[in-house]
Amino acid sequence: MGSVIDGSIQGSGYGQRSEEGSRFARDESGTSGLGQAGKEQAKQLGSAAKERVYHQVESRRGDVAKGLRGLVSTLEGISDKDEAKMARPLLGRATGLLRRTSERLESETTEELLADAQTQVRERPGLFIAGCVAAGFVLGRLIKA
């Protein structure tokens, strides 16, 4: 009679390796036909998802650029008022940044924008995280209001 420790319990298949399990255990190469097919399917799925994302971004870039231009004109209108005298330099920088962003969205391809974003995130990860926190805070405040 076998013990639980050595993995063989009398009258059960526990501890007995099937022939298929033994074949996979003896496979020294590390990849089987099933694993290779899974990798290929994952590549195809990733490629299809990437294409969908690019298509979605391409279709909405114009809308985002148009919204940014509207925000620029609103900020310019606010900065022209006498009440905004102290905030005028900050508003000027914000409108400049938004205007440049809008122009880049209209003139560059999605691949160029994505490559630039990846480069910026790699060079300044702390700034990226701080920007995400700030954007989350602003969105949270807008949703509450």
Structural class: mainly alpha
Kindly report the oligomeric state of this protein.
Answer: single chain
Largest sheet: none
| CA distance, first residue to last residue | 72 Å
Mean pLDDT reading = 79
Radius of gyration: 29 Å
Low-confidence stretches: 22-28
Relative strand content? under 5%
Spell the H/E element sequence: HHHHH
Number of strands: 0
What overall form do the CA principal axes indicate? elongated
* Portion of residues within helices: over 70%
Number of helical regions: 5
Q: What's the quick description here?
A:
This protein is an all-alpha fold.
Plain-language structure description:
The chain is mainly alpha-helical and about 140 residues long. Helices cover about 75% and strands about 0% of the residues. It is built from five helices and no strands. The chain has helices at about 20-25, 35-80, 90-105, 110-125, 125-145. The radius of gyration is 29 Å and the shape is elongated. The protein starts with 18 loop residues before the first helix and ends with a helix.
Question: How are the SSEs ordered, and which strands pair?
Answer:
Layout: H1 19-26, H2 33-79, H3 88-107, H4 110-123, H5 125-144
Helix pairs in contact: 2-3, 4-5
Descriptive labels:
elongated, mainly alpha, 5 helices, 145 residues
